[in-house]
């Protein structure tokens, strides 16, 4: 018996439409269907968002190699992966701050100097400043570890996965410290901890991806990359906001 695909109208035999991939049996959108969809999302992590989160966290190397080589369907694509974790992080972050009334420690100092102002600006517009850091990190890793095996856009994709995991770790930190232990998540120590965490993860990610590339001076390259990425993160964090302040101040 031929089935007409409810998604694209193609007639076919089998369990899945060969044109668009939709399943032949589509459930009516009942409460039960939504519930089973929700349960499925959290329990079947053989593919999709949670699978991608788990695998890029515990084995970034294999996941990266697989994704670049073309094993794509089991992974969440990099841009949406990055956007979902960034979104979840900020939703929860702002909710916790508003609920407990946490404040930036430096905000208590009126008319702080330019360095303090830039720090505030950076932490208030975090996502804007994270994009140039992603770009520069990809550039550094590309020239020091990846070229010519991988191209630059493949590196950008990997950096988006990595940054997604960074926001995932920050979200977990916020949840545990802010919600469970009731610590002010805007405190400098928490920020420092997240910086250390991101450096450690960045090192682990680069190691796990490129250990199979048989590069000469691998450890030297790896350590240099980590230091350069950290340095470029710090420079972007401190100087870009200062440039911003100078450019906007004259008006
Ligand atoms: Zn179809």
Counting structural domains, the number is 2
Quaternary structure classification: single chain
Number of helices: 9
Biggest beta sheet attributes = 2 strands, antiparallel
Q: What is the overall pLDDT average?
A: 86
Taking the alpha carbons of the first and last residues, their distance comes to 72 Å
How would the global form be characterised? Answer: globular
Bound molecules: zinc ion
Structural class call reads mainly alpha
Strand order of the largest sheet: 1-2
- Uncertain stretches: none
Rg, nearest Å: 22 Å
Helix content: 55-70%
Q: Write the element-wise H/E pattern from the N-terminal end onward.
A: EEHHHHHHHHH
* Proportion in β-strands: under 5%
Number of E-state strands:
2
Short description:
The protein is an all-alpha fold and 251 residues long. It is built from 9 helices and 2 strands. Helix 3 (60-69) packs across helix 8 (188-210), helix 5 packs across helix 9 and helix 7 (152-180) packs antiparallel against helix 8.
Secondary structure layout plus pairing:
Layout: E1 3-4, E2 11-12, H1 31-43, H2 49-58, H3 60-69, H4 78-100, H5 114-124, H6 126-146, H7 152-180, H8 188-210, H9 218-249
Antiparallel strand pairs: 1-2
Helix pairs in contact: 2-3, 3-8, 4-7, 5-9, 6-7, 6-9, 7-8, 8-9
The structure holds zinc ion.
